[in-house]
Amino acid sequence: MKQSILTRYRVMAYVTAVWLLVFTVAIVLKYGFDTGDTMVISQIHGVLFIVYVVFAFDLGSKAKWPFGKLLWVLAAGCIPVASFFVEPKITREMQPLIVRDETAPVEA
């Protein structure tokens, strides 16, 4: 597996998690304090979540995860702050599967 597959999953895990927190705050402000609108924030989060699902599915298929584990990782994108805990665990598990590019020049 290439490093780029893991990297794009990691980036989207954090970006999606941050936008989910922003969306959660917006929902609390809208319904708890009758302030603000959530339309734009929800649409941005929705698009980012779709990209996250695609990248997580790609990582899971390359790593040959069982379906339950894939669902667990996808569910982390739906629960505020869960991605901040799941992403480091997944990264630790995937590091041994990363194939190093032997043709790249070695830096001194």
Describe this structure in words.
By secondary structure, the chain is mainly alpha-helical. 73% of the residues lie in helices and 0% in strands. It has 4 helices and no strands. α1 (3-33) runs antiparallel to α2 (39-63), α1 (3-33) packs antiparallel against α4 (82-94) and α2 (39-63) packs antiparallel against α3 (67-76). It is elongated, with a radius of gyration of 17 Å. The two termini are 25 Å apart. The mean pLDDT is 88.
Q: Kindly estimate the percentage of residues that lie in beta strands according to DSSP.
A: under 5%
List how many beta strands DSSP finds.
0
Rg value: 17 Å
For the record, give the distance between the C-alpha atoms at the N and C termini, rounded to a whole number.
25 Å
Low-confidence stretches: none
How would a crystallographer describe the biggest sheet?
none
Question: How do the SSEs run, as a string of H and E?
Answer: HHHH
- The number of helices is 4
Average per-residue pLDDT, rounded, comes to 88
Structural class: mainly alpha
